[in-house]
Amino acid sequence: MSFAIFFEMGDAAAIAGTVQAASLPNTLKQRGRPFWNSGLKDWASAPLGHHPNDIACPLCHVVVMTQGTLAEFRQLLVDIAAFLGTADGFYVKVLADNMTPEMTGAMEPYP
Amino acid sequence: MATRYLIRGWQTNDATLEGGLTGAGATIDATSQITGTYSLKIAAASGTATYGCFNGSIGGGGYVRFRVKVTARPSTTARVIQGAITLNTLNLRLNPNGTIAVYVNTTLVGTSTTALTDTTRIYLIEARGVSGTGVDALKIDGVVEVNGNIAASTVANEAIGATDTVADTYTAYFGDYAIDTAGFPGDGRAVLALPISDNARAAKWTGGAGGTTNLWDAVDNKPPAGLASASATNTSQIEHSGGGAGNEDYDANMTTYTNLGIGASDTVNAVQALFVDGEDIATGTKTLTYGVKSNPAGSFETNFSAGADAGACGTYPTNWSARRGTIINNPSVTLGNSPVVTARRPLTETRVASVCFMGMYVDYTPAVAATPRAIPFRNVNQSVMRAATW
Questions:
Q1: Which of A6, B30, B109, B314 could form an S-S bond across to A60 if both were Cys, CB 3.0 to 4.6 Å?
Q2: CA B1 to CA A110: how far, in whole Å?
Q3: For residues B169 and B184, what is the distance between their CA atoms, to the nearest angstrom?
């Protein structure tokens, strides 16, 4: 089952960059690998697209991942944020908070 | 009737909300020099422009008013204390002897008789930046000091302080600044109402850490204390989570006029809402608006993007937008009741919008103090003496 996240390029870059951060311990890197290989690695060329309930993000791009679940991906971001403990890390936590049906930052299943 | 174009009192203790500071010698001073705790301090460095507010024309003629305390005058050469030396523009210059010269660009209109030489005294200054022949051009403490000719097309400038780069210095404190487009503002004060309690809250408005009470305590900081979303607290900012029904409001009760020191015989000339907003994450547009909802009722500002869509808000002022609302002139208010200032999420879009300051400037004129009446001479002693002989 696939899921998608919807963000403008600046935020998509923050998500992708954080999941690939060289400073992460191997356990977090390993958890991130399926998401990276199944779609996140193509974030920079992701097409424009937004959640069907989103009325205010014409610049959003849709990044589709075909492995893992949305819940697992969100938890991965939360754990990475806690590990990094920096402002950039905590920003990824806020982005993860936006990956809910209400916040229209993600959709599962997708399409 | 007031037709205020600008109200500044520096009571927010925030340069951005007060229109900016230029030059290292322009600061907001916290030693209660003019009205309230804060004032604009101009310690003009030699050869350096040092001023507050925007150095630009107001787009037409205007009358300026401010209070000033001069603690150090220029040594040899006059420097600007209000306005700017540029085409058709009113500027007031402080002479080394303490008098004030009124200029339009480089043309002298006249010079005051009174000199601002008492370093402990606060002087009320009013000047005319509107063309006219044989008109009052400068008042000090309400008394006309300069009457003369002001050229056609004269405009006023917002800047207050030393906009010039003359090689001399002065130090002065400014407050109660106003520009009116219709006439001399007259005596007046610029005081700041801040949130004191919650009036009403749509469910999706919460404190920065999710609190549902005392939201006012997050939007009354001087200066604003907004933080990045991940660090937000219930005293740093409030948030609307998005995805609401539209037109969802947080209403804050503000300091009452009475508690601002405004008495029953005083006149409230104008009020102006202040607002600071940001977006939690860069993705998406989060629309907001604000306004004075009641006491007096005003209109809301045109919808805008939270934080001007500049990106995720950080520690104030990074990516926060400071705004001053439409001035409501000659309002009808109930002095003992709170004005209500509202933050509104007008649309149904998702994602979080944040607000870290809500306030309201009030420009008012104190009632004229009763003039002591001469007591008719009565020869009391004579009456007493006469009575004693009865």
A1: A6
A2: 62
A3: 29
User: B282: alpha, beta or left, given left = phi > 0 and alpha = psi -120 to 50?
Assistant: alpha
Contact A94 B231 (CB under 8 A): no
Give the model's pLDDT for residue B382: 46
If we measure between CA atoms, which residue out of B230, B202, B205, B231 comes closest to residue B219? B205
Q: For position B389, what pLDDT does the model report?
A: 44
Q: Which spans in chain B are helix H?
A: 380-388
- Between A26-37 and A9-19, two packed helices, what is the crossing angle to 10 degrees? 130
For chain B, residues with pLDDT lower than 70 are 369-390
pLDDT in tens, A88-106: 788 999 999 999 878 899 9
Q: ipTM, 2 decimals?
A: 0.87
The residue with tokens 């993000």 is: A57
Q: Looking at CA atoms only, how far is residue B307 from chain A in angstroms?
A: 15
pTM listed for this prediction: 0.91
Kindly state the DSSP code that residue A1 receives in the 8-state scheme: -
Which of A56, A91, A93 lies closest to B284 in CB terms?
Answer: A56
